[in-house]
Amino acid sequence: SRSCQVDPQYQLNEDEVSVMSYRGTIKCLAIIDIVFTILGIFSGDALIFVLVMLIGPYFGYQGAKWLKPCQTMVYLVFCVCKTIGQIIIAFTSSSFWLVIFALIQIYITRIVWSFQTRMRRIGEDRLEVLRDPDFINRAIAANQDSIRFQYY
C-alpha cells in the first residue's frame, strides 16, 4: 500500500469539495431546464414567457460553470418559483404524475440551494482560484476520491 500526500495548495476543504461535486450536477439540471422550457413553446406557452423563463437556467449553467454565486442565485429563485407553481398545479389538478413532478422539482431546488449555500461560504478570492481550469484539473486529481457528481 502506497501513501499519497496531497499538495497543500490543492487540498480542498469540505465546502470546496461539495461545490466541485455539485458543479456538474447543476450544469446538467440547468440544461434539462433549458430543454423543457423550450419545449413549452410547443405546448402553447407564449414565446416571451418562454424567453423570460430561460434566464434562470441559463444563469444556473453559467453560475455553476464559473462558480458565480449571484448567477446561481438567479437559478435558485427560478427553481423556487417553478417549485411553487408545480405544487399549486399538482394540488389543484389532483394528478398523481403532477404530484411526482412537484416532488422532483422540490428535490432539484434542494440541490441548487445546497450548491448555492456552500458556494457562498467560500470566499471570493478562493472562488477565483477554483475557477482556474489548471487548478481545477490538479485539485480534482489530488482529491479524486472526494469529488464526484452529487445528487443529495
Task: Describe it.
The protein has 152 residues and is mainly α. Helix content is 75%, strand content 0%. Helix 1 (14-39) runs antiparallel to helix 3 (55-66), helix 1 (14-39) packs antiparallel against helix 5 (96-121) and helix 4 (69-93) runs antiparallel to helix 5. The model has no long low-confidence stretch (mean pLDDT 87).
Question: Secondary-structure map with pairings?
Answer:
Elements: H1 14-39, H2 47-53, H3 55-66, H4 69-93, H5 96-121, H6 124-131, H7 133-142
Helix pairs in contact: 1-3, 1-5, 3-4, 4-5
Order of helices and strands: HHHHHHH
Percent strand equals: under 5%
Supply Rg.
18 Å
Mean pLDDT: 87
Spatial separation of the terminal alpha carbons:
32 Å
Count the DSSP helices. 7
Which class of secondary structure composition applies to the elements? mainly alpha
Q: Strand count, sense and closure of the main sheet?
A: none
Helix content: over 70%
Task: Please count the beta strands (DSSP E, at least 2 residues each).
Answer: 0
Q: How would the global form be characterised?
A: elongated
Name the poorly predicted regions.
Answer: none
Oligomerization:
single chain
